[in-house]
Amino acid sequence: MIIDSKEGDYFYGRTEYDSPEVDNQVLIPAKDNYCRIGDFVEVEITDAAEFDLFCKN
Questions:
Q1: Other CB atoms within 10 A of residue 57 CB
Q2: Distance between terminal CA atoms of the chain?
């Protein structure tokens, strides 16, 4: 996935199949991980909500 932004306690990203501001977002907890905007990271999905995926890397 690619990291798009950081807001509050999460980094927000999207998978290769998701369009920005249209599809779901992938959230990575910022306290446990360090990511840079624009980086590609490999993650493990740990939970899902109606429109979002939660993960760790």
A1: 16
A2: 11
Domains, the chain = 2-56 (2.40.50.140)
Beta-bridge mates of residue 45: 55
CB burial readout 2-33, b (16+ within 10 A) else e: bbbeeeeebbbbbeeebeeeeeebbbbeeeee
CA distance 31 to 9: 7
Can you give the pLDDT at residue 23? Answer: 77
pLDDT in tens, 13-56: 998 888 777 778 899 998 878 889 999 999 999 999 988 899 98
